[in-house]
């Protein structure tokens, strides 16, 4: 690995500057990086330069043209210019004097220039951000490394391999850093750094093609020193506690979402078509323990797919992969030694009740049933499984766990009458298998007086094949928007932007991350009215739920937020 370039961004959200070297100090970032910011007046800024969330500042997402503003900063003097305008000298000892000029540049705000004590980074602990240029190149679609606004740009390492640095210490020049976590990307990465135009919806592209929205890593300086382009980047080994520290900021993404390389410690052929992979998870002590029924995502060869966790032991997770589809075939054919994973995810988890369990599966759908049987404790459990093979994958393990489990040699032999006979209205029922199989089983159970609310199933859906391009609002407004939980009411017009933009303009700080319909962080319940998406979400939320970052009202609406 090698340090290819060093950048700082003197005014948060505005253009960056390449610098020939940087003197790093413990606990701090690149000197004068995110040193200043333009507060828009809609949210409070902490006193005395203390760290403040990016939502309080003018930034690239809502203000797409910020890269076109000129910035000239040498540590002692600041000059700023709007596109096509003359430079304005701003005395660093009188930041308030810039207010009138900023108000003209950003109408509708109450802007003022503020100074950070230690950098207005996106996270309070994220002193230095690192980008692997090979990863950006692998994204394609015209993605520009400078759109990712990193401090350090790295070369001479494989695409996505930077994720393996999380929880480790590295030496760069005369400094040493501990890598805390991967970087979740937002819509800023979609904006070209010199034209200010949207290249492509990068977070949506990443979520759709790679199954996550992470690129690059955050680090903290633990040993100071000078760094320069051309310096080698040396992996010094594990940094105890670094990854755990990466979870501590309240706004940091949860560890189960972080992509990380898992070592394939063993492979077990379960049947002619199924191979189990045991994966050693480097974040096992940091992310939540998997619940029975949850899954991980595997990201490999430019593709991704979800696989149920069929067993978990210590820091190892097992997935059982049937040769079916491109990704599964790739795993069977290439036998990789390492796989990038995220998770555990999934809401089809074993409940905490004491009622009887009825587990109904077909084929590879047996995978979530095994951890559920293990976690069932003293609950009565019935397993009905359909398979075509004479020795189906994982069946011997199921019989060992539950000797009374019943196998049906063809899906058509596990019929509605058999399921109905095993059903009890008080049972908790879990289904897993092909979509048609689950539909037939659900109909049979409901016909047997099992309440639909007692039946759980999960379908792994593919991301929508949308372009990620934004469309104009279908209605100009005005519409009344009530954020019911907060008691805040606002009027939306087309110029307000998305519902998330409107919430922030009204002084609310709601959960958000990518601002591009890719991560689900901003999902809220819509309890009244109707909305439309300006960007198709990568995975649409369920009924009565809406992604605020890419939606607008088409009537008066009530949002439970």
TrEMBL record:
<dbReference type="GO" id="GO:0030151">
    <property type="term" value="F:molybdenum ion binding"/>
</dbReference>
<keyword id="KW-0285">Flavoprotein</keyword>
<dbReference type="InterPro" id="IPR039261">
    <property type="entry name" value="FNR_nucleotide-bd"/>
</dbReference>
<feature type="domain" description="FAD-binding FR-type">
    <location>
        <begin position="257"/>
        <end position="351"/>
    </location>
</feature>
<protein>
    <submittedName>
        <fullName>2Fe-2S iron-sulfur cluster binding domain-containing protein</fullName>
    </submittedName>
</protein>
<keyword id="KW-0001">2Fe-2S</keyword>
<keyword id="KW-0274">FAD</keyword>
<feature type="domain" description="2Fe-2S ferredoxin-type">
    <location>
        <begin position="479"/>
        <end position="561"/>
    </location>
</feature>
<dbReference type="InterPro" id="IPR012675">
    <property type="entry name" value="Beta-grasp_dom_sf"/>
</dbReference>
<dbReference type="InterPro" id="IPR017938">
    <property type="entry name" value="Riboflavin_synthase-like_b-brl"/>
</dbReference>
<dbReference type="Pfam" id="PF00111">
    <property type="entry name" value="Fer2"/>
</dbReference>
<keyword id="KW-0479">Metal-binding</keyword>
<dbReference type="InterPro" id="IPR005302">
    <property type="entry name" value="MoCF_Sase_C"/>
</dbReference>
<dbReference type="GO" id="GO:0050660">
    <property type="term" value="F:flavin adenine dinucleotide binding"/>
</dbReference>
<dbReference type="InterPro" id="IPR011037">
    <property type="entry name" value="Pyrv_Knase-like_insert_dom_sf"/>
</dbReference>
<keyword id="KW-0560">Oxidoreductase</keyword>
<dbReference type="GO" id="GO:0030170">
    <property type="term" value="F:pyridoxal phosphate binding"/>
</dbReference>
<dbReference type="InterPro" id="IPR036010">
    <property type="entry name" value="2Fe-2S_ferredoxin-like_sf"/>
</dbReference>
<keyword id="KW-0411">Iron-sulfur</keyword>
<dbReference type="Pfam" id="PF03473">
    <property type="entry name" value="MOSC"/>
</dbReference>
<dbReference type="InterPro" id="IPR001041">
    <property type="entry name" value="2Fe-2S_ferredoxin-type"/>
</dbReference>
<dbReference type="InterPro" id="IPR017927">
    <property type="entry name" value="FAD-bd_FR_type"/>
</dbReference>
<keyword id="KW-0408">Iron</keyword>
<feature type="domain" description="MOSC">
    <location>
        <begin position="81"/>
        <end position="236"/>
    </location>
</feature>
<dbReference type="GO" id="GO:0016491">
    <property type="term" value="F:oxidoreductase activity"/>
</dbReference>
<dbReference type="InterPro" id="IPR050415">
    <property type="entry name" value="MRET"/>
</dbReference>
<dbReference type="GO" id="GO:0051537">
    <property type="term" value="F:2 iron, 2 sulfur cluster binding"/>
</dbReference>
């Amino acid at each position: 690995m090698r340090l290819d370039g060093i950048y700082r961004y003197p005014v948060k959200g505005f253009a960056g500057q390449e610098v020939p070297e940087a003197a790093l100090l413990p606990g701090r970032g690149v000197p004068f990086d995110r040193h200043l910011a333009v507060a828009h007046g809609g949210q409070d800024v902490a006193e005395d330069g203390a760290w403040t969330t990016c939502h309080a500042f003018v930034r690239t997402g809502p203000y797409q043209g910020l890269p076109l503003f000129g910035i000239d900063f040498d540590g002692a003097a600041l000059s700023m210019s709007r596109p096509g305008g003359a430079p304005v000298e701003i005395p660093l000892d009188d930041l308030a004097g810039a207010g009138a000029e900023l108000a003209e540049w950003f109408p509708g705000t109450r802007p003022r220039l503020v100074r950070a004590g230690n950098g207005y980074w996106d996270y309070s602990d994220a002193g230095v951000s690192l980008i692997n240029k090979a990863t950006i190149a692998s994204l394609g679609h015209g993605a520009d490394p400078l759109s990712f606004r990193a401090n350090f740009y790295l070369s001479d390492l494989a695409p996505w391999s930077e994720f393996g640095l999380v929880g480790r210490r590295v030496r760069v020049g005369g400094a040493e850093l501990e890598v805390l976590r991967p970087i979740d990307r937002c819509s800023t990465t979609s904006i070209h750094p010199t034209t200010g135009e949207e290249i492509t919806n990068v977070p949506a592209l990443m979520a759709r093609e790679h199954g996550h929205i992470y690129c690059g890593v955050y680090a903290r300086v633990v040993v100071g020193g000078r760094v320069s382009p051309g310096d080698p980047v040396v992996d010094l080994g594990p940094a105890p506690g670094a990854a755990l520290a990466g979870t501590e900021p309240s706004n940091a993404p949860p560890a189960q979402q972080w992509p990380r390389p898992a070592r394939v410690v063993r492979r077990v052929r379960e049947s002619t078509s199924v191979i189990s992979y045991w994966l050693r998870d480097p974040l096992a002590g940091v992310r939540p323990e998997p619940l029975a029924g949850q899954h991980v995502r595997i990201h490999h060869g430019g593709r991704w797919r979800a696989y149920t966790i069929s067993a978990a032991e210590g820091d190892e997770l097992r997935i059982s992969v049937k040769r079916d589809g491109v990704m599964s075939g790739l795993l069977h054919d290439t036998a990789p030694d390492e796989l990038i994973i995220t998770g555990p995810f999934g809401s089809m988890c074993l409940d905490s009740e004491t009622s009887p369990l009825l587990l109904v599966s077909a084929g590879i759908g047996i995978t979530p049933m095994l951890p559920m049987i293990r976690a069932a404790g003293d609950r009565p459990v019935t397993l009905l499984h359909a398979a075509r093979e004479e020795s189906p994958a994982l069946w011997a393990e199921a019989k060992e766990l539950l000797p009374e489990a019943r196998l049906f040699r063809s899906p058509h032999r596990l019929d509605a009458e058999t399921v109905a006979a095993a059903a009890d209205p008080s049972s908790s029922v879990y289904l897993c298998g092909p979509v048609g199989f689950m539909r037939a089983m659900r109909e049979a159970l409901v016909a047997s007086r099992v309440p639909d609310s007692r039946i759980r199933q999960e379908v792994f859906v593919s991301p929508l094949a949308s372009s990620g391009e934004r469309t104009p609002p279908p209605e100009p407004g005005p519409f009344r928007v009530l954020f019911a939980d907060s008691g805040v009411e606002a009027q939306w017009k087309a110029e307000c932007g998305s519902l998330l933009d409107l919430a922030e303009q009204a002084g609310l700080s709601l959960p958000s991350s990518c601002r591009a319909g890719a991560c689900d962080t901003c999902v809220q319940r819509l309890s009244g009215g109707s909305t439309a998406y300006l960007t198709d979400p990568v995975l649409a939320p369920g009924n009565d739920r809406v992604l605020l970052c890419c939606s607008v009202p088409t009537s008066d609406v009530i949002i439970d937020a």
